[in-house]
Amino acid sequence: MVNERLIVYPNPTNGLFSIKNIGNFNNVTVHDVLGKKIIDLNLKTGINKLDLSIFASGIYHLKFISPMGNLNKKIILLH
Q1: What is the pLDDT of residues 38-56, one digit of tens each?
Q2: What b/e string do you get for 22-44 counting C-beta neighbours within 10 Å, with b at 16 or more?
Q3: pTM of the entire predicted model
Q4: Pick the CATH number of 2-77 from 3.40.50.300, 1.10.10.10, 2.60.40.3080, 2.40.160.20
Q5: What are φ and ψ of residue 45, in 5° steps?
Q6: In this structure, are residues 53 and 60 in contact, taking their beta carbons and an 8 Å threshold?
Q7: Could you say which of 2, 12, 47, 70 is the most buried, measured as most Cβ atoms within 10 Å of its Cβ?
Q8: DSSP 22
């Protein structure tokens, strides 16, 4: 299952969070609640770190892209 190949933690976060990519995901985009893309990052296999601390508290949408399909997750940012 695609969802089991990707772990996002901690959630909620104070800004810094990790993406454990054990699948074939090669890209993640982060969107705010209005749908504006704020981050576009190429992923490597293993641990990837992102920092949302410069953005306002709220819910952010993560869209992961792989040859096997796309996966959407949410992360909660609390300051």
Answers
A1: 999 999 999 999 999 999 9
A2: ebebeebebebeeeeeeeeeebe
A3: 0.90
A4: 2.60.40.3080
A5: -70, 135
A6: no
A7: 2
A8: -
